Each structure stands twice: as C-alpha cells, then as structure tokens.
Amino acid sequence: MRIQGGTTFIFAVGLLAFLGTRSALAAGDAERGARAFRQCIACHSIEPGLHMTGPSLASVLGRKAGSIEGFTRYSDALRAAQLTWTEATLDQWLRDPAALVPGNTMTFPGIPDAQARQDIVAYLKAVPQGTAAAQPRPQLPNLKQASAESRVTRMRHCKDTYEVVTADGKAHRIWEFNLRLKSDTSPSGPRPNEPVIVGAGMRGDRASVVFSNPAEISSFIRDGC
Prior knowledge:
Blueprint: H1 2-27, H2 30-36, H3 76-79, H4 87-95, H5 97-100, H6 114-129, E1 152-158, E2 161-166, E3 171-175, E4 179-183, E5 196-200, E6 206-211, H7 215-220, E7 221-223
Parallel strand pairs: 1-7, 4-6
Antiparallel strand pairs: 1-2, 2-3, 5-6
C-alpha cells in the first residue's frame, strides 16, 4: 500500500507539473513573441494593408485564411482550405505549414519550439489590442530617389547580352541570364519610364532593372547589336 500510495503521489505531482507547463505554454508572452517575430518580418508586416511577399498579419486572429483584401498571391490550396485563424490553427501553421495545408506555397520549414510558437501567437494577438508595438519592417529603398549611377536611360539586347546605360553615362554589359527585369508599382517604386538598376550577387555579376509597371519593359528595351 505504501508503494501504491507513493506511486500515486508521484504521479499526481508529475501530472500537476505537466499541466502547469501546458498552461504556461498556452499563455504565451507577447514581449518574447515580438523578438521571435523578427524571423517573419522579411516576408510579413503587421501593419494593416501593407502586404509584402506574404500578406499583412494585422488582426489575423479570427480571419478566414486566404481572404485578406488586397493580397492576390494566395495559393489555391490555402484559399480552398476553409480554415479560420485561431490560436490553435496558427500554432499548427507555425509548426508545419505543409502539414496543416498540403500544397500551400509558403516556403517556411516551421518552428519546432512550442513556446516560441505560442509567444508569436500572443504577439499577433497583442498588437491590434494596443498592448504590444508592431515590429518595424525592413525599409525598402525609395527608387524615386535613385542616383544617376542607378537610373537607367536606355537598354539594348544583343544576342545573349543586355547593355544597360545609366544617367552617369556608363554602359553596363550583363549576360541576359544574370539580369532580372522587375516591376514595382508601390509608392517607393521608380518614376514612369525611369527604371532603376539594382545590384545583386556577391560578385557583382547579377543585377535587376526595376520598372514602374510591367508595360514599360518591352517598349523600353531595344533589340539589336
């Protein structure tokens, strides 16, 4: 009987400790969550209406997945998921997006640490309530203020090479496979018909030319050697 009583006591203590741990995890901590959210700000803002690679996460709790106004890059899988973002579903998503919604296009391996996930959920809950400050997003360059060495005045395509001439008079010859043609229609994008070249790649052999809208691309580039 003593052994049984001792075993019961130990089991009860262990159960209480387990439940206490579960309760602590469920609560989350918004301050820790703000720090943990830094791994998300490259793709998500928490400002209303500010969409980046992914949609804004402002007031995400209670929202139907794949439904925020103004964001058009949701995967078909997420739109069809019939999923509402609750604390539980956000935790599942942060743990393993592919397991929760197979076929979604979010390239994120998940967060294995349960406490970190709960902290992020607490932070997402606290920001719209005004009890936590939104993490500042990375500042994108204002391409309307680009210098002469970055403003593109003309472009020519010859065989496998783009010649990009900038406002400082320099000509840059770039292998076509190493040059990306992009558009940026945001307020910080380039002025109409004033594309901007932006360097990329550690060796300096890759670049992007950013236009104010896609329609400019074909009309701006001349073909010929």
